[in-house]
Amino acid sequence: MAVKHIFSFDSLQGQDGESVTAPAEVMLSGNPVTTDWPAFDSADGRVSIGIWESAEYHKIKQHPNEMEYCLILEGTVRISDKEGNSQEFSQGQSFIVQPGFDGVWESLGKVRKHYVICQCN
Fold first, then answer.
1. Within a 10 A sphere around the Cβ of 7, how many other Cβ atoms?
2. Dihedral sign, CA of 47, 57, 33, 64?
3. What is the pTM of this model?
């Protein structure tokens, strides 16, 4: 029997995700279509949690008023800031994109991640 108010990501296995297409103006290269498996959205719209997946994907990423926690489940991403500094994260690694980030997200091949996005304004 399931425990009330507990969500297991295992329950998403085998389900079709939702296709999301990034706006053309933020895409730098790669496939703009990603897949999202939402697990939780707060009633006020300020918190979203789920699983996200992309093929090779290179886009402008801006987080003026939100924070995103990512845990890479598969693949490698490269995050670069406006000054050209970059860092790569691979399977099993996690990171936080803090409010005010302005830079680039690169999925270096297929990437799958858990995410938690919180609006901070």
1. 12
2. positive
3. 0.92
Distance separating alpha carbons of residues 46 and 91, to the nearest angstrom: 27
What are the structure tokens assigned to 89, written together?
A: 């994260």
In the sheet that holds 18-21, the strands lie side by side as 18-21, 33-41, 47-54, 111-119, 66-74, 94-97
Strands (E), the chain: 18-21, 27-30, 33-41, 47-54, 57-63, 66-74, 76-81, 86-90, 94-97, 101-107, 111-119
- Chain segment 81-99, per-residue pLDDT in tens: 999 999 999 999 999 999 9
- Tokens 């936080």 locate to 96
> In this model, does residue 62 exceed pLDDT 80?
yes
Please name the amino acid found at residue 73. Answer: L
| Rounded Cα gap, residues 83 and 63, in angstroms | 16
Supply 67's token pair. 């924070």
Distance from the first to the final alpha carbon of the chain: 38
CA distance 104 to 95: 15
